[in-house]
């Protein structure tokens, strides 16, 4: 084929056809070699005996002055050496497939290419084009010319071999994996079917082929099937640990989602691994490793906090001598240690030198602290805000004369979106030392407070009856929280010894009393809380309560008072002159 392509009379169309056929043959040759890789490595043809015999003949022809015979045999020796060098290179590359990652294999193959080219440069130091131009009726010259043409064809073939080895490096690595799993024959058979070749012609530009898709679907199916089995195994393992038996149900509920995330990540990583020809996923490897560490750290964090929460409730009911502050600080210290260890492991797998990092926290940390005092103050302010859990993103807070919704708690500032749609940025070092009012840290109860003024000419019995009816109406109102209003605490287990109602923001107070005699009215105090903390729902509840109050007052012949002043003129004795 090389000789055909080098023919002066060949057309460009013919060259393209030959090149396409040549590529297909190289691909098939690679399939055949990898099907019997070990046999190929062990029994590859070596031309040392031919070279040895020809070198003896060359010496003899030189002594006899047989110029063309000498050239004929010298060229043939060079051809054999080219084949030996190529054979050595290919066998070395095939051996390396089992022992290296894809990145290492790429580097090794490049080194083999360089060595091959260096070796060939020593062989191809003579140009034989002039011999091809000699026109003499010599049979030996004709044989020499044929060997020279073969020699030049072998040089091109060697270049093509390097080219196609480079083009097929991923395919070679992939097929070797299939070979190791004893799947190479069915894989090649599937890809060589007519329908697979048609599909592959469409999807190969996107990095897919039929076999890859089959493997990816199999992986999805296998992981789907073993997911529940794996979770049951984890469940059984936790139940078998005596010290964790009473926490097992809570632990399993807390770690279910992170475990599912880990399974999803494994699925994605295996899919990418197959898609990338079993060559790893490059920079994504670190991403997956770090993601696994983050999720495992989170699982440890959840397990520790579930156990702590249960222990705290036990201590709260059994042992009142232990201060809640000490327990709360202890839990925070444990959580901080878990996070630090997780961070150090992440840094290690991200490529950071932990010795350098830890030593840099000494003198370097002191120098940075002096140079970036304000930045560090804001950073520690951020830690203070996050650890104290006073507010979170999306909470409605009021601080230092500003009020709005928390947009983001950054490393340096916390940004608020005010209700007139402006942005306010407050440094965290300042915010951590301010009084913060958080309107969203409540689960049940938004306050309704009003003072109703009725006229002084109202009858006492009517006032008393109205107050009783208002109190009864509010107590039975479906939107008002009362002592009978139940709240589900099961979804919230706090690792703190504090009142659950105060921590979660639950209010059920209901007060309706005659409050005061003011300047122009008799005032009734109404103080209660809606069940909903949503502003719109709170307004609806408050509005309904006010309509009901108006109806009750009308029913009891009471009227609303308004600011007024009565002037009384005293009778004076008449004066006589």
Automatic annotation (TrEMBL):
<dbReference type="InterPro" id="IPR023408">
    <property type="entry name" value="MscS_beta-dom_sf"/>
</dbReference>
<dbReference type="InterPro" id="IPR011014">
    <property type="entry name" value="MscS_channel_TM-2"/>
</dbReference>
<dbReference type="InterPro" id="IPR011066">
    <property type="entry name" value="MscS_channel_C_sf"/>
</dbReference>
<protein>
    <submittedName>
        <fullName>Mechanosensitive ion channel family protein</fullName>
    </submittedName>
</protein>
<feature type="transmembrane region" description="Helical">
    <location>
        <begin position="287"/>
        <end position="308"/>
    </location>
</feature>
<dbReference type="Pfam" id="PF00924">
    <property type="entry name" value="MS_channel_2nd"/>
</dbReference>
<keyword id="KW-0812">Transmembrane</keyword>
<dbReference type="Pfam" id="PF21082">
    <property type="entry name" value="MS_channel_3rd"/>
</dbReference>
<dbReference type="GO" id="GO:0005886">
    <property type="term" value="C:plasma membrane"/>
</dbReference>
<dbReference type="InterPro" id="IPR049142">
    <property type="entry name" value="MS_channel_1st"/>
</dbReference>
<keyword id="KW-1133">Transmembrane helix</keyword>
<dbReference type="InterPro" id="IPR045042">
    <property type="entry name" value="YnaI-like"/>
</dbReference>
<feature type="domain" description="Mechanosensitive ion channel MscS C-terminal">
    <location>
        <begin position="448"/>
        <end position="560"/>
    </location>
</feature>
<feature type="domain" description="Mechanosensitive ion channel MscS">
    <location>
        <begin position="374"/>
        <end position="440"/>
    </location>
</feature>
<feature type="transmembrane region" description="Helical">
    <location>
        <begin position="258"/>
        <end position="275"/>
    </location>
</feature>
<feature type="transmembrane region" description="Helical">
    <location>
        <begin position="206"/>
        <end position="226"/>
    </location>
</feature>
<dbReference type="Pfam" id="PF21088">
    <property type="entry name" value="MS_channel_1st"/>
</dbReference>
<dbReference type="InterPro" id="IPR006686">
    <property type="entry name" value="MscS_channel_CS"/>
</dbReference>
<feature type="transmembrane region" description="Helical">
    <location>
        <begin position="329"/>
        <end position="350"/>
    </location>
</feature>
<keyword id="KW-0472">Membrane</keyword>
<dbReference type="InterPro" id="IPR006685">
    <property type="entry name" value="MscS_channel_2nd"/>
</dbReference>
<dbReference type="GO" id="GO:0008381">
    <property type="term" value="F:mechanosensitive monoatomic ion channel activity"/>
</dbReference>
<comment type="similarity">
    <text>Belongs to the MscS (TC 1.A.23) family.</text>
</comment>
<dbReference type="InterPro" id="IPR049278">
    <property type="entry name" value="MS_channel_C"/>
</dbReference>
<keyword id="KW-1003">Cell membrane</keyword>
<dbReference type="InterPro" id="IPR010920">
    <property type="entry name" value="LSM_dom_sf"/>
</dbReference>
<feature type="domain" description="Mechanosensitive ion channel transmembrane helices 2/3">
    <location>
        <begin position="332"/>
        <end position="373"/>
    </location>
</feature>
């Amino acid at each position: 084929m090389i000789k055909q392509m080098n023919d002066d009379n060949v057309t460009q169309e013919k060259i393209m056809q030959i090149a396409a056929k040549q590529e297909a043959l190289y691909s098939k040759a690679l399939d055949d070699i990898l099907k019997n890789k070990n046999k190929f490595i062990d029994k590859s043809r070596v031309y040392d005996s031919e070279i040895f015999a020809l070198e003896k003949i060359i010496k003899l022809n030189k002594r006899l002055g047989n110029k063309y015979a000498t050239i004929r045999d010298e060229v043939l020796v060079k051809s054999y050496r080219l084949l030996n060098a190529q054979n050595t290179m290919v066998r070395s590359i095939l051996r390396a497939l089992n022992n290296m990652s894809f990145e290492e294999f790429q580097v090794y193959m490049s080194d083999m290419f360089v060595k091959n080219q260096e070796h060939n440069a020593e062989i191809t130091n003579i140009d034989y084009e002039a011999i091809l131009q000699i026109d003499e009726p010599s049979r030996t010259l004709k044989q020499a010319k044929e060997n020279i043409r073969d020699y030049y064809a072998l040089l091109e073939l060697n270049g093509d071999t390097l080219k196609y080895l480079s083009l097929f490096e991923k395919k070679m690595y992939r097929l070797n994996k299939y070979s190791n799993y004893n799947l190479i024959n069915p894989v090649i058979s599937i890809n060589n079917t007519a329908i697979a070749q048609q599909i592959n012609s469409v999807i190969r530009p996107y990095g897919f082929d039929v076999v890859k898709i089959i493997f990816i679907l199999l992986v999805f199916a296998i992981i789907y099937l073993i997911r529940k089995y794996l979770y049951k195994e984890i469940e059984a393992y936790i139940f078998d640990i005596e010290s964790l038996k009473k926490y097992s149900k809570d632990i399993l509920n807390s770690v279910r989602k992170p475990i599912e995330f880990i399974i999803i990540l494994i699925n994605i990583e295996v899919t990418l691994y197959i898609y990338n020809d079993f060559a790893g996923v490059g920079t994504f490897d670190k991403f997956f490793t770090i993601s696994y560490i983050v999720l495992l750290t989170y699982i440890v964090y959840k397990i520790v906090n579930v156990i702590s929460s249960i222990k705290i409730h036990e201590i709260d009911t059994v042992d009142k001598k232990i201060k809640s502050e000490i327990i709360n600080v202890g839990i925070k210290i444990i959580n901080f240690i878990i996070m630090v260890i997780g961070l150090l492991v992440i840094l290690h797998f991200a490529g950071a030198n932990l010795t350098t990092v830890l030593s840099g926290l000494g003198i370097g940390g002191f120098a940075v602290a002096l140079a970036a005092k304000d930045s560090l103050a804001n950073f520690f302010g951020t830690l203070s805000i996050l650890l104290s859990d006073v507010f979170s993103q999306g909470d409605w807070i009021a601080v230092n004369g500003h009020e709005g919704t928390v947009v983001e708690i950054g490393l340096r500032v916390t940004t608020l979106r005010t209700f007139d749609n402006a942005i306010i940025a407050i440094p965290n070092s300042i915010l951590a030392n301010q009084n913060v009012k958080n309107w969203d840290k409540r689960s049940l109860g938004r306050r309704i407070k009003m003072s109703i003024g009725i006229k002084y000419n109202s009858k006492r019995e009517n006032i008393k009856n109205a107050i009783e009816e208002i109190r009864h109406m509010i107590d039975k109102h479906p939107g008002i929280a009362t002592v009978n209003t139940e709240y589900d605490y099961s979804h919230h287990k706090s690792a703190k010894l504090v009142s659950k109602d105060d921590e979660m923001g639950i209010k059920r107070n209901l007060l309706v009393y005659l409050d005061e005699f003011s300047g122009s009215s008799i005032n009734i105090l109404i103080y209660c809380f809606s069940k909903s903390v949503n502003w719109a729902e709170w307004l609806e509840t408050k509005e309904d309560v006010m309509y009901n109050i108006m109806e009750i007052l009308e029913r009891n012949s009471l009227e609303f008072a308004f600011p007024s002043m009565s002037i009384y003129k005293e009778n004076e004795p008449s004066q006589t002159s």
